[in-house]
Design goal:
By secondary structure, the protein is mostly helical. The chain has a single domain (58-286), classed as Orthogonal Bundle (MetI-like fold), CATH 1.10.3720. 76% of the residues lie in helices and 2% in strands. The chain contains 12 helices and 2 strands, in the order H-E-E-H-H-H-H-H-H-H-H-H-H-H. A hairpin with a 4-residue loop joins strand 1 (36-38) and strand 2. Helix 9 packs antiparallel against helix 12. It is a multi-pass membrane protein. Belongs to the binding-protein-dependent transport system permease family. This is ABC transporter permease.
Length: 287
């Protein structure tokens, strides 16, 4: 018994060591630096909680948090609706086309965020302008030069990137629904919508827990897509929290202040994620 116990810790030790080196120690250092005036090279002075008090007076940071929150809500809703619809589509009996469609829908997730940003920048700046010139419709003009359309441009990009990934999660849960339940519902006279809403949808509660968590956490952490598509413009009106923190750290060289922002942002993400997990897990228990 002792031998098994020792072997367990021997195999676990490398992972624990890596976790401590990569996560725990940097986090503790980050908390310390957030209490100082730090420029990335040296700690000038210990300022206590001044950085935290100042960030609540920082209008641009507070705006970036609100912008990120709105972006996350819109993206999570879009990603999960489209991901579920795609999963329902590719789980139909279409022979070899199932594999082809799954591959096509998943491919955007394999493209890096920077490249995705430039692809959609070309679409919004070139393709949309071309459509506007041909049709005379002003809707397609200046998408990235306006705050509102820039916001929806970011949402479209992120939804396009993540929907295929979330689709895979829904597919795995849809395939695990017992066929006997679907057959029984069909025999009882349920139509396609009723079979989905009354049988499949309640059984997808665990999939919603996973998918909402992944899409929500990834939406809050978006940086490279934001930088490549709008670079926070116009006038920082589409700047997300991650970009605001990065600019404070590496453009202003105020890393202590940036670290305080990062910790507050981490706490916000953690609280929202815990609430989301609690609410969706509760739904699973009720089913």
């Amino acid at each position: 018994m002792k031998m098994k116990h020792s072997t367990y810790w021997v195999f676990l030790a490398p992972s624990l060591l890596a976790l401590v080196i990569v996560l725990v120690i940097p986090f503790i250092q980050g908390v310390y630096y957030s209490l100082t005036e730090y420029n990335g090279f040296q700690v000038k002075e210990f300022v206590g909680f001044d950085n935290y008090l100042n960030l609540f007076k920082d209008d641009q940071f507070l705006y970036s948090l609100l912008f990120t929150g709105g972006f996350s809500v819109a993206s999570v809703i879009g990603i999960n609706i489209i991901g579920l619809l795609l999963a329902l589509f590719v789980t139909q009996k279409m022979g070899k086309f199932n594999t082809i469609f799954r591959t096509v829908f998943f491919m955007p997730n394999l493209i890096g965020g920077i490249i995705l940003g430039f692809i959609w920048q070309f679409i919004f700046l070139k393709a949309f302008v071309g459509i506007a010139s041909l049709t005379g419709v002003d809707f397609f003009k200046g998408w990235l030069s306006d705050t509102e359309t820039g916001f929806w441009g970011l949402v479209i990009l992120f939804v396009w990137q993540m929907s295929g990934y979330i689709m895979i999660i829904y597919i795995s849960f849809l395939n695990n629904i017992p066929g006997e339940l679907i057959e029984a519902a069909t025999i009882d006279g349920a139509n396609g919508w009723q079979r989905f809403w009354k049988v499949k949808f309640p059984l997808l509660a665990p999939a919603f827990t996973v998918s909402l968590f992944l899409s929500l956490s990834n939406a809050f952490k978006v940086y490279d897509q934001n930088m490549a598509l709008t670079a926070g413009g116009p006038f920082n009106s589409t700047q997300m929290a991650t970009m605001n923190i990065y600019d404070t750290a590496f453009k202003v060289q105020d890393m202590g202040y940036a670290q305080a922002k990062a910790i507050i942002f981490l706490l916000i993400i953690t609280i929202i994620s815990v609430i989301q997990l609690y609410m969706t897990r509760k739904k699973e228990i009720d089913i």
